[in-house]
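Dear Dr. H.,

I hope your travels went smoothly. While you were away I took the liberty of generating a structure for the chain from your last submission, since the lab meeting agenda had it listed for discussion. I wanted you to have the full record in hand beforehand rather than looking at slides cold. The sequence, exactly as received, is reproduced here:
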Amino acid sequence: MGSTSAHGENTTGEGLGRRDLIKRSAALGLIAVPTMSFLSACASGGGDESTKGPVKAPTSKENPFGVAKGGKLDVVVFKGGYGDDYAKAWEAAFDKKWGTTSSHLATQEITSKLQPRFNGGNPPDVVDDSGAQQIKLDVLVKGGQLADLTPVLDAPSLDDPAKKVRDMLIPGTVEQGMQGGKFVSLNYVYTVWGLWYSGKLFKEKGWPVPKTWDEFLDVCTKAKDAGIGGLAHQGKFPYYINVAIMDLIAKKGGLDAMKAIDNLEPNAFENNPVALAAVEAVYEVVEKGLLMPGTNGLTHTESQTAWNQYKAAFITSGSWLENEQLKQTPDDFDMQFLPMPVLADSKLPFEAIRAGAGEPFIVPEKAGNKAGGLEFIRSMLSREWSTLFAQQANSLTIVKDGVDPSVKLRPGTTSAVAALKAAGENTFNYRYPDWYSEMDTEIQNASNELMAKRIQPKEWIKRAQAAVNKATKDPNAKNNKRS
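The corresponding predicted structure, in token form, is as follows:
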């Protein structure tokens, strides 16, 4: 996807016309209100109110947070699988409505770009805090850096002002954004996680779509015999192989097995035959030589591109995969989603999938235009902006019926929607990666060692449980409980 916006941006000096100069001058408080600024400076014995500009206006039902017309809005988004064209479309719509001037930064280096700004007390107004270099949400919460987004939930919906924003969201969205008892992040994209395959390749080879783990291993073996890797995984980012391990635990042990991990129980992994069976199942792929050769040393995009080149039958990922691989995917590839195949005696059916809200958007507590940030989040929860996202990013949002039915979706997204429908009530989602980032990293590191055959499944279990035990000392652990 290109990085240029279809919505027109002034990127050159000549683009800054008289109207923009007047708007920016007003935003800086340099015109229109000099007397007031002068008086307030005198009254307070100095100060810099004159340079801050309008960041608050009277509140009303249409403007619940008091967004000032003609202010600035500072937006930073993670430019990963969803690109950033959707954010440019949003910003254009916001500026048109509010007379604001949005600044747009799209980056994968969230921590290195934003940590100094958070530390310096001048963070952006809205941040899509995602990706491998995400600033960990639990760390920001402990530092008191995040605004409580509950007022957005209780504000009138843009689609139906008689209803609150919270009434327009898919169930589970609010819970997913809770940290230490507060709603601090809007996980915007409704994601499904699992396996992916090429419909074209499977049709050509006559391979059945597996529903059990044994059937999955059988297809991987057939692939190997045909000179193709069975499973590709994004070796440099073991987050992805944990999709397989954690899905197998949840499906074999049921929701109790998932909650035991999130609730940091002493037998979450250790002395737990369900967890061991799941890790052993994934390790069998390694032991039998069914991994795509070289996959342990590849980044996510390198592995995914090799899979797009028919060098592997399967890959694990979330539903951002299709959009992330747009340029690398052959037109007739026919990308298809597959729920994780089940182990013997699994409590959840094959159709069960990990699904839920991902891609956390936050408003920093010290944002210069906090009102604008909150209104931006409210606008994201309208059908108009949700449809813009679906069009630009080939993915669904957590807004109920949030996509205009006339919008045509790509094959991977269509198959994910169908899988979600088939799952019905059988969806699950882990909370520990958001709640305990250090624990998540330590489990990922153990998976990296496992896939490289440097440790055995029992050692993985030992390391994962040690990470759980360490997380119990986290001060937020007492508030982070699943019932």
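Two observations you may find useful: The longest strand covers residues 186-198. Residues 264 and 472 are 6 Å apart (CA to CA).

With kind regards,
E. W.
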